[in-house]
Amino acid sequence: MDKHVHKNIGDQFRDEINSLSQQPRMHIWEHIDQQLNKTDAVNYKNKFTRLRKRTSLLLLLLAGIATFSLINFYVSKNKTTDTIALANVQQKEQRNTTDAKKENIAPVNLHTKQSITAGNTFIPAVAREEKLNNAAKLILERKGATNIKITKATAIEEPINITDTKSINKESTENPDAAGFAAMSEKKVFAEKDISAIISIKKDSNVITQTNEPLQKENKKRHSSNLKFTLTPFAGADYSAYRLVNDKANGYDDKTGIATRERSDLSTSLGLLIGYRTSNTITIQSGIIYSSSNISINPTKIYAEKDNTGAVKFRYNTSSGYGYVLPSFSNSPAVGDSVFADGANHTLRYITIPVIVKYKLGHGKLTFAPGFGITLNFLTQATLTTDLVNQFNRETEVISKLESIKKFSPGLLFTPELQYQLSKKFSISAMPYFKYSLGAINKGNVVKTYPYTVGLSAGFVYKF
Amino acid sequence: LTDIIKDIIAGCIAGNRNCQSDLYKLFSPKMMIVCLRYSKNLEEAEEILQDGFIRVFKFIAQFKNEGPLEGWIRKIMVNCALQKLRSQVNLRPVVSISTAIHNEYYEDDIIENINGKEMMQMVQALSPAYRMVFNLYYFEGYKHREIAAMLGIEEGTSKSNLAQAKKNLQVAVKKNASSEKKVLNG
Question: Computed from CA positions of residues A24, A27, A28, A30, in that sequence, does the dihedral angle turn out positive or negative?
């Protein structure tokens, strides 16, 4: 070999070129600066959007908790007031009976907010404390009359809180003439809701009777509202999408590629929810939801690399995870070999257990109940079906094991339910819903994926 | 890492534009050469440089102070160049391995007359596939297996592309030398 011939051309080129340096033209930095400004603006916008979303969710959650607490507080307060009132009324009843026996007058038996009773018969409870005193006084003032008819009386809104029973007893015994009670009832007894009531007081039997049809209806309603549980089977269609975040440094931008390739298709959900009504307006629901999300993937080239076992296979990356595939026409590829995947269908199936708190708004047949809750999502199946193609072959491959996808992920759910009552026990409901994953559904994939779903479902509600 | 570079990195992480500018000024001349090696002309190199620095600023928080910053930035530039090339050309073999030229030697004094800029032009004149393999092998120090994995080609293809790249460079060097002779004789 010639003495001058020794050094590899590549090494010589490397040594020479590596010693060079060249200042880029000025406008390059200007372009970079502009690009960075744009990126900053987008980042600020995204941050603001994220902050706004989180704040809205938090406010919604707080509002739900506050409403729930407030309602619970009032319910317990009312119960306490009713209990005290009932105790007072019972005491008064006893005294009244004793006094009536002594003075031979009709005893007035006062019960809860719905009724005043004399003997075993109910009078509509229509008075606040002071007005009730007057009414009772007047009734007793009619001592000697055979019948009293009240053509108009009212139902009350608030519980009767009878604390001064002495005044009733005292007045009732001191003023036995009850003339003009009907008129008094019409004028003085507050009249928020008119009801037809007929009260008759019979002197001989010492009984005050009444018939009150609206009240009976009210009682029926109350009876139906005693149905504490609901069962809601439903089916829905939804659209799933996701937010992608790059999970790799060093400049790989797989997020863009995946986002460009994948397209969400219409998905379906089926479920059964059991609800428990804790108060007139609050219902807690839970149950089971089965959902299937479908994603179509555009044709792409996939490359061979070593899998976890060391075997060289073609790797297919998706937004949720990656899988390996080995077609029969290329069953011993070298690392870096490629094959064309002619489109793919990616399916994710989840079993979801939601816990939802719903607040009912409105009365009557049509009600609106916005609900907010958390979801526990369990992955049951993740498959990818694709056609691998080379110059002479086409083979359909199913990847049933996707790596890096988490088996469990928590999420949030918002559902403003619209319900129409068909009968006492049956309703139909329309439930739009929005589900959002609290964390990424994968770990160790080329991208982190935060899915969200917008959907509409319809179902029946059975109360029991 | 020196304290100055550490400060610059911290500033870049915080989004400080002055620090980003300092980092650019510090490394852009070297990186420009890297980008020129992977591209066919100045415009393409500047495009890669621009994309590369934007990624550097985007991912700089993920730089762990375990190695030189220059190496990390260079890797990003190479990845950008790779990505650009993937979108542009097919890296399938142009020649089969059996036809590859293995004559790697030539006379030193011929090449001694060629300066770095001329060498750069010769590299840029290579076809994209040859240029990429040549750069990855000689400048980045990757093995053929690794190059094959990165480019999505077979190992044999990588070898044949490298051999062909070197042959083309030899031809270019000789051509350069003969043209210089003509100039001198003329």
Answer: positive
Residues of B in contact with A28 (CB under 8 A): 28, 46, 49-50
Are A333 and A304 in contact by the 8 Å Cβ rule? The answer is: yes
Task: Determine, for residues B59 and A11 on separate chains, whether the beta-carbon distance falls below 8 Å.
Answer: no
| Interchain CB contacts (distance < 8 Å): A and B | 138
Give residues with Cβ within 8 angstroms of A370, minimum separation 6.
A358, A359, A361, A414, A415, A416, A417
Are B11 and B20 contacting, i.e. CB atoms less than 8 angstroms apart? yes
C-beta of residue A201 within 8 angstroms of C-beta of residue A167 = no
CA distance to A161, A225, A229, A256, A357, per residue, from A73 (Å): 18, 20, 22, 52, 17
* pLDDT reported for residue B180: 67
Mean pLDDT (10-residue bins), chain B, 186 residues? 84 91 94 94 92 92 85 92 75 46 55 84 91 93 91 90 92 81 61
Q: In this structure, are strands A338-359 and A121-124 parallel, antiparallel, or unpaired?
A: unpaired
Which residues in A lie closer than 8 A to residue B37 (C-beta atoms)? 17
Of B15, B116, B153, the CB nearest to A16: B116
On average, the pLDDT of chain A sits at 74
Closest CA to B57 of B43, B76, B42: B76
The answer to whether the beta carbons of residues A17 and B119 sit under 8 Å apart is yes
> What sign results for the dihedral spanned by CA atoms B58, B60, B62, B67?
positive
Greater confidence (A141 vs A457) lies with A457
Handedness of CA A86, A90, A95, A97 (dihedral sign): positive
Of A171, A254, A149, A245, which is closest to residue A443 (Cα–Cα)?
A: A245
Confidence (pTM): 0.43
Enumerate the residues of chain A whose CB falls inside 8 A of the CB of residue B134. 10
pLDDT at A119 (0 to 100): 41
The angle that helices B17-38 and A26-103 make with each other, rounded to 10 degrees, is 130
Tens of pLDDT, residues A291-347: 998 899 988 888 888 887 778 888 888 888 888 888 888 877 887 788 888 889 999
Distance in Å, alpha carbon of B9 to nearest chain A alpha carbon: 16
pLDDT of amino acid A127: 44
Q: At CA A409, angle to CA A308 and CA A453, rounded to 5?
A: 115
Comparing CB atoms, the residue among B72, B120, B173 nearest residue A20 is B120
CA distance A344 to chain B (A): 21
pLDDT tens column, A185-216: 444 444 444 444 434 444 444 444 444 555 55
A251·B80 Cβ contact <8 A: yes
Tokens 């809205």 correspond to what residue?
A56
Q: What is the DSSP string of B72-132?
A: HHHHHHHHHHHHHHHHH---S-SS-GGG--------HHHHHTS-HHHHHHHHHHS-HHHHH
Chain A (18-77) residues lying within 8 Å, Cβ to Cβ, of chain B: 18-25, 28-29, 31-33, 35-36, 39-40
- Is A329 an interface residue toward B (CB < 8 Å)? no
Spatial CA neighbour of A138 closest among A177, A104, A82: A177
- Whether residue A179 is predicted with pLDDT greater than 50 in this model: the reply is no
- 8 Å CB contact between A230 and A274: yes
